[in-house]
Design brief:
This protein has 282 residues and is an alpha/beta fold. The chain is built from 14 helices and 7 strands. α1 runs parallel beside α14, α2 crosses α3 and α7 packs parallel to α8. The model has no long low-confidence stretch (mean pLDDT 94). The structure holds adenosine-5'-triphosphate (ATP) and magnesium ion.
Length: 282
């Protein structure tokens, strides 16, 4: 699908996508990183928001530890939410900090200070506590096509904010018992937020970290794909556990620096195609 075909069909601009799952370590950040990179490589202008205090999305894109970023004075999301500030002041832009940021991609970093979200809301005297991220994104006048939000493994006020700010949500599903259980409460959370944000669409469930040698994982794939309520949301693409995908975390997504970056990201290409088709149809 061409860039213009999708752009014309986007309901609003930027189109905001949160990558979510309250279960930890299921492949959210990897998906958010690769999705941001592939969209940027297609010519879309992408803003990445790291709202997880682990700062994994930030560290992969910058190649710099969140501690060093903090010591160097980088502030990120938690300061950009201040209505008295221009959020553009807090961006890490292409080539500014390191040569690891892709073209067409800007970043608002996240680090342990993200844990002070509620305190900052009080300090900045923000009234609408659920629309903090939404209002911050609205203050960017840059021509972004997509905002991608990498979220923490928790059903938290920050997650509610990410969902209130989003047009679409991608749920990551690792085919295992605990993650299977988590999917149902995750969809309850999505429905609860739809009361505040009726535009929020579950774009789909992406199965990730699949190990084809494990028959129990295949059973959990069959369970979710066959589920009456959730089966219809499953993307056909299944992301497998692959060494080159795992290495993106430290080697990064820019080919100059990580020669196998394309190999690591390749399995996400059909997912991005499915995703753009669903956005177009929504
Ligand atoms: N397809 C894959 N193949 C191999 N390794 C992967 C793959 N996807 C993710 N990983 C690795 O698995 C670990 C967990 O992935 P990731 O950090 O993306 O999960 P997460 O859901 O964001 O975790 P958290 O809940 O802690 O934020 C990371 O070390 C990552 O590099
Ligand atoms: Mg993560």
């Amino acid at each position: 699908m061409s860039r213009s075909a999708v752009k014309k069909s986007l309901l609003k601009k930027p189109y905001v996508i949160s990558v979510i799952c309250q279960k930890g370590g299921v492949g959210k950040t990897t998906c958010a990183i690769v999705l941001s990179t592939l969209l940027a490589s297609m010519g879309y202008k992408v803003l990445g928001l790291d709202v997880d205090q682990q700062g994994n999305y930030t560290e992969t894109f910058t190649g710099i530890s969140i501690r060093d970023l903090r010591l160097d004075g980088y502030l990120g999301v938690i300061y950009a939410i201040n209505p008295a500030e221009d959020p553009r002041e807090f961006l890490v832009k292409e080539n500014e900090l390191s040569d690891r940021l892709p073209e067409n991609f800007d970043l608002l970093i996240g680090d342990e200070r993200t844990g002070f979200f509620s305190e900052k809301i009080r300090e900045y005297k923000i009234q609408d506590k659920n629309s903090v991220l939404k209002n911050m994104i609205a203050r960017f006048d840059t021509d972004y096509d997509f905002v991608i939000i990498d979220t923490a493994p928790a059903l938290s006020p920050m997650l509610t904010n990410a969902l209130v700010a989003s047009d679409g949500v991608v749920c990551i599903y690792q085919p295992e018992k605990y993650c299977y259980s988590a999917m149902f409460s995750l969809f309850e959370t999505i429905r609860e937020v739809q009361a505040f944000n009726p535009n929020l669409k579950p774009l789909g469930i992406l199965t990730a970290l699949m190990d084809g040698r494990r028959s129990d994982m295949q059973e959990f794939v069959d369970l979710i794909f066959g589920d009456q309520e959730l089966g219809k949301y499953c993307f056909k693409t299944i992301i497998s556990r692959k060494a080159s995908t795992g290495r993106l975390a430290y080697a990064g997504v820019v080919k100059r620096i990580n020669p196998e970056a394309d190999l690591g990201m390749k399995q996400y290409v059909p997912f991005v195609k499915e995703l753009l088709e669903r956005i177009r149809k929504n």
